[in-house]
Amino acid sequence: MPGRPSLAGRCLRGSRRTGGMGGGGSALRVCADHRGGINWLSLSPDGRRLLTGSEDGTARLWSTADGQCCALLQGHESYVTFCHLEDEAAFTCSADCTIRKWDVRTGQCLQVFRGHTSIVNRILVADNQLFSGSYDRTARAWSVDKGQVSQEFRGHRNCVLTLAYSAPWDLPGAPCAEEAGGLLVTGSTDGTARVWQVAGGGCWQTLRGHTGAVLCLVLDTPSHTAFTGSTDATIRAWDILSGEQLRVFREHQGPVICLELVNRHVYSGSADRTVKCWLADTGERVRTFAAHGHSVSALKYHAGTLFTGSGDARARAFDAESGALQRVFRGHAFVINCIQENSKVTELGTGIP
């Protein structure tokens, strides 16, 4: 797209540094063919391919082995907001109000999902279904194979920003689970999260309590608990079956932008330039990760290391147990929107703030 600076996704070393603190990380490969910022990236389940979605209106498939572009996915009429990669298919959504499914071998568009009337900003593929959230205030469920809407979820009074799904078998004993066909949880700028019955499209619970937009959410299916982060600087825990607010996590001094749930710990990244670690079951704050020069926009936990991405264009690796800064990754020019990890490398995506 004209006027957009050329930015790159980078493949960076994700291994733990053995000596000193705060050392630099080195780029293994730079994937630099996009002509605009990278808004999201997704690794294939086998870790061999990387999918990037860009401000330039395209998505690209890359080999993680050598950083070469394998396929250019063209067809969207505006910027790509989000993407998801599986072994056989890639999915992208866009400000052009559509979602597209692509063949990862040929780069051909297999299906265009039409129905949303504004920007589609998030998609989720699970249980042979595609879920989407949009600025048109709705979420939708689609048949992955046919590209047709199977359910529409209406009730939010503003944009739907984030999604999570729980399959029926993840909710054993829940009276609503079987007939509901699973539960979809959505977060919105209207300050609420909603729990929907996928089969019927009905709103099962409305989770009220935030006083600002819900920017992020994660779901702990075994305990049927949702954790939501908001511009009101709090994280809240909810029972998605009863709708009860279980806990409020207070200490951040700015909007909560991203969440990661690992080993009964909740990690939260905020505009206050910190990450905090909380006990999921009690809400107790156990650790604060500082050292960021701007908002924390991305989180990824792997094997005892917490990776963070920030508006200061740097990624950082912290020891998750002690909070010690292990490594700083430099090289990007703009905010880091997304971090994906496999056993060999950590993938970072940058975009325009």
TrEMBL record:
<dbReference type="Pfam" id="PF00400">
    <property type="entry name" value="WD40"/>
</dbReference>
<dbReference type="InterPro" id="IPR036322">
    <property type="entry name" value="WD40_repeat_dom_sf"/>
</dbReference>
<feature type="repeat" description="WD">
    <location>
        <begin position="73"/>
        <end position="112"/>
    </location>
</feature>
<dbReference type="InterPro" id="IPR019775">
    <property type="entry name" value="WD40_repeat_CS"/>
</dbReference>
<dbReference type="InterPro" id="IPR015943">
    <property type="entry name" value="WD40/YVTN_repeat-like_dom_sf"/>
</dbReference>
<dbReference type="InterPro" id="IPR020472">
    <property type="entry name" value="WD40_PAC1"/>
</dbReference>
<dbReference type="InterPro" id="IPR044715">
    <property type="entry name" value="WDR86-like"/>
</dbReference>
<dbReference type="InterPro" id="IPR001680">
    <property type="entry name" value="WD40_rpt"/>
</dbReference>
<feature type="repeat" description="WD">
    <location>
        <begin position="249"/>
        <end position="288"/>
    </location>
</feature>
<keyword id="KW-0853">WD repeat</keyword>
<keyword id="KW-0677">Repeat</keyword>
<feature type="repeat" description="WD">
    <location>
        <begin position="31"/>
        <end position="72"/>
    </location>
</feature>
<protein>
    <submittedName>
        <fullName>WD repeat-containing protein 86 isoform X4</fullName>
    </submittedName>
</protein>
<feature type="region of interest" description="Disordered">
    <location>
        <begin position="1"/>
        <end position="25"/>
    </location>
</feature>
<feature type="repeat" description="WD">
    <location>
        <begin position="207"/>
        <end position="248"/>
    </location>
</feature>
<feature type="repeat" description="WD">
    <location>
        <begin position="113"/>
        <end position="152"/>
    </location>
</feature>
<feature type="repeat" description="WD">
    <location>
        <begin position="181"/>
        <end position="198"/>
    </location>
</feature>
